From TrEMBL:
InterPro entries: Uncharacterised_YtzC (IPR019668). It comes from Peribacillus asahii. It holds the Pfam family DUF2524. It comes from the Bacteria. This is Uncharacterized protein.
């Protein structure tokens, strides 16, 4: 089972990836081809967070799994929005 502290730390990292991706999404939607490399980096951070979640989820208790599932939903939605944005 994952410790509460390690789950909290991981979720904070996910929130950081979401903030970065959200900023890049907003900037890219304002300007065409604003900074493709930074935009792609933000997408990569989202992908990495989703990939890292799998083993953490497997060892989490039911309450932690619920928190992780909510975060995964947010990560997936942002990833989808970034892919669909025509910038």
């Amino acid at each position: 089972m994952g410790t509460r502290q390690s789950i909290d730390h991981f979720l904070e990292q996910c929130e950081g990836a979401l903030r970065f991706a959200d900023f890049e999404y907003i900037e890219a939607s304002r300007q065409e081809h604003w900074d493709d490399e930074t935009y792609q980096n933000a997408q990569a951070y989202l992908e990495e967070a989703i990939r890292q979640m799998e083993p953490i989820y497997a060892s989490a208790n039911p309450e932690q799994k619920e928190r992780l599932q909510r975060m995964k939903g947010q990560l997936d939605l942002m990833r989808h929005d970034m892919v669909m944005l025509r910038h």
